[in-house]
Write a structure and sequence with these properties.
The protein is elongated. The longest helix is centred in the middle third of the chain and has 13 residues. With 420 residues, the chain is of the alpha/beta class. The chain has 2 domains: 205 residues, UDP-n-acetylglucosamine1-carboxyvinyl-transferase, Chain (Alpha-beta prism), CATH 3.65.10; 206 residues, UDP-n-acetylglucosamine1-carboxyvinyl-transferase, Chain. The strands form 6 sheets. It has a 4-stranded mixed beta sheet. The termini are close together. Helix content is 30%, strand content 25%. It has 14 helices and 24 strands. The protein binds uridine-diphosphate-N-acetylglucosamine. The site of uridine-diphosphate-N-acetylglucosamine has 20 residues, from helix 1, helix 5 and helix 6.
């Protein structure tokens, strides 16, 4: 198993290119099940979760090849309609195959994802939506069995705005007979990007980019080439890393429109930003001001950046309130940050950060993807050496993060360890 060894105290300076969005690719890849044929998806991040999705599609009979950041998928010979537990347990996004399989092949057997490091993560909305479109859904031995001779259009309201459920039901509705109206659909850019790809495949979707999607089902779709949008969460992670080290960095290959709330908060905290069409220059010459955040659905402050922001606020002199409204228990990074000397109290899905305390390097353990990013960020400004264990979490969603951080001047190396 790998760990990172970080010497704190280095200022980040230079340019960093953001990869394609992990959550974008994970939505686009299953769309290839909707129409047999060949797909080229460029700007695909070469990272663990994408490999997991490739393995899942391959286990169903597809051919997937990732050359650098160019992903080729051939879905001409799908022979299995099953997403086994071994894949779904590694990555919840595997659940995305459910909608396309039922819509295109009339059946799917997909393992229930179960909980995750930060608590229960239900899939009821995915299932209700598919049932509304006419699928029968049963549970057997931890698997969802969904069937439908032919899905039909329907009206479906998402009681909670859900990225995954919107993606799943949207994909299914493209091949349903008649019109589907989805309300309170997720607005996240990765879903908008999925809808755009579906349109390129021949789907008829109105309202893209809004929370009301109207889908006129078609008899069949065709393959397409697509480019994955930039990873807004990776971009935010580097911006925060730059800011906490009082650095001067340019983040390239970003879509600043996808980051408006994060950029606003960075400016409030004292950063100077120069925002262009696809680059963001950040300069910071002081410790940040304490700036509260409340996570919410897009375009609000992303839950996927909450952990990184919390680390950033460890350097803010004063009290910061960090409220989590998407996943109440998503604070597994906090006990590890305490080991570096942080002063953080948790209650009612809120972290109270008393910042400005001296941070000292320590051994800390990653518990999930974004928590690991927050530990790296804190380690960058902790005095002395920190070791971040269980790096496989960070490898799920960040492409060569240590290479990128090193190029910006961080002292970070990846080494093998027996510690788990
Ligand atoms: C996606 C992202 C994840 C991000 C999350 C919220 C991917 C692969 N993952 O996850 O990185 O943290 O969005 O932005 O894109 N919910 C239900 N019932 C459901 C589905 C969801 O109650 O059937 C709830 C969840 O518990 C949560 C909220 O809805 O409180 C939002 O979750 P959702 O948007 O579905 O997250 P994911 O798609 O799993």
């Amino acid at each position: 198993m790998d760990k990172f060894i970080i010497e704190g105290g280095k200022r980040l300076v230079g340019r960093v290119k953001v990869s394609g969005a992990k959550n974008g690719s994970l939505a686009l890849m299953p769309a290839s099940l909707l129409a047999p044929g060949q797909y080229n998806i460029s700007n695909t991040p070469n990272l663990r979760d994408v490999w997991t999705m490739s393995r899942l599609l391959t286990s169903m009979g597809a051919f997937c090849e990732l050359n650098g950041n160019d992903l080729f998928i051939d879905s001409s010979n799908i022979t299995s309609y099953e997403a086994p537990y071994e894949h779904v347990k590694k990555m919840r996004a595997s659940f995305y195959v459910l909608g396309p399989l039922v819509a295109r092949y009339g059946m799917a057997k997909v393992s229930l994802p179960g909980g995750c490091a930060w608590g229960p993560r239900p899939v009821d909305l995915h299932l209700k939506g598919l049932e509304k479109l006419g699928a029968t859904v049963e549970m057997e031995s931890g698997y969802i069995l969904a069937k439908a001779d032919k899905l039909h259009g329907a009206k479906f309201h998402f009681d909670i705005s859900s990225v995954g459920a919107t993606g799943n039901v949207l994909m299914a509705a493209t091949l349903a007979k008649g019109t589907t109206l989805l309300t309170n659909a997720a607005l996240e850019p990765e879903i908008t990007a999925l809808a755009r790809m579906l349109v390129k495949m021949g789907a008829k979707i109105n309202g893209i980019g809004t929370s009301i999607l109207e889908i006129e089902g078609v008899d069949e779709l065709h393959p397409t080439d697509e480019e994955t949008i930039p990873d807004r969460i990776e971009a935010a992670t580097f911006l925060i890393a730059g800011a906490i080290t009082k650095g001067n960095i340019e983040v390239q290959n970003v879509n600043p429109y996808h980051l408006t709330t994060v950029l606003e908060k960075l400016e409030e905290s004292g950063c100077k930003l120069d925002v262009n069409a696809d680059t963001i220059q950040l300069e910071m010459d002081s410790d940040p001001l304490p700036i509260d955040i409340t996570t919410s659905i897009y375009p609000g402050f992303p839950t996927d950046v909450q952990a990184q922001w919390l680390s950033y606020m460890l350097k803010a002199d004063g009290l910061t309130k960090i409220k989590e409204t998407i996943y109440a228990d998503r604070f597994k990074h906090v006990p590890e940050l305490l080991r570096l000397g942080a002063n953080v109290e948790l209650s009612d899905a809120t972290a109270l950060v008393r910042g400005g305390k001296h941070l000292n390097g320590a051994i800390v353990m990653s518990s999930d993807l974004r928590a690991s990013a927050s530990l790296l960020i804190a380690a960058l400004v902790s005095e002395g050496t920190s070791e971040v264990l269980r790096v496989y979490h960070i490898d799920r969603g960040y492409e060569t993060i240590e290479t990128k951080l090193k190029a910006l001047g961080a002292s970070i190396k990846r080494v093998k360890t027996d510690l788990i």
